[in-house]
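User: tokens in, sequence out, please.
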């Protein structure tokens, strides 16, 4: 894991302007391979979701159980303080330390871990959605591409932004292997002529035309 090259000033500006920002590669090939290899280890996960059963799309994902793999726990703990500074500028009220924020989640009954690995094959996709798991929602999250993008076609990360009285805007985010996209979970503030409006954000994945695609989702609030 290498977070030293992230330009947090640019990340903050991109999130303010578009609701998403890319980090450059933060995980190496070996770390990506190791996380992909965990997918078939039932002991590492608390649940498996087949998207078609719930009309979420096609493909599947698995939520990690506690204790999280070291790489996942490390990303959660290292990214959170930087993102909390942005979240506090947007909304306010978030502690600087992730352990303190998780304690709030657990006190509110949100005790189930939310980091997950998503697996897509040919024809799979993920419908536009928001990852809301209870009353407490941290407003930013991250997705890391674990697969080599040369090994699949399609499967682009997609965001939509819906502003008041305006048609939705679409953002397609290409990623390198080991690179993260950081994005708004639910809403982001936007300055308008009348003050500040809340812009509704949703994210998903376009149809995979060939190959196989794994991603790691890093969500900072836990689930009820």
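Assistant: Sequence out:
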């Amino acid at each position: 894991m290498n977070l030293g090259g992230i330009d947090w000033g640019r990340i903050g500006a991109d999130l303010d302007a578009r609701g998403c920002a890319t980090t450059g590669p933060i995980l190496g090939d070996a770390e990506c391979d190791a996380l992909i290899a965990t997918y078939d280890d039932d002991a590492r996960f608390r649940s498996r979701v087949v998207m078609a059963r719930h009309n979420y799309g096609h493909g599947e994902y698995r939520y990690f159980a506690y204790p999280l793999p070291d790489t996942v726990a490390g990303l959660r703990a290292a990214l959170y303080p930087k993102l909390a500074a942005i979240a506090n500028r947007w909304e306010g009220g978030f502690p600087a330390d992730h352990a303190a924020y998780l304690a709030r989640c657990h006190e509110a009954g949100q005790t189930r871990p939310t980091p997950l690995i998503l697996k897509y094959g040919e024809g799979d996709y993920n419908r536009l959605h928001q990852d809301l798991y209870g009353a407490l929602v941290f407003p930013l999250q991250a997705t890391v591409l674990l697969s080599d993008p040369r090994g699949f076609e399609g499967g682009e990360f997609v965001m939509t932004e819906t502003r008041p009285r305006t048609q939705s805007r679409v953002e397609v985010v290409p990623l390198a292997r080991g690179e993260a996209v950081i994005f708004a979970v639910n809403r982001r503030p936007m300055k308008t002529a009348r003050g500040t409006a809340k812009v509704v954000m949703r994210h998903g994945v376009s149809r995979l035309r060939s190959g196989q695609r794994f991603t790691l989702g890093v969500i900072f609030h836990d689930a009820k």
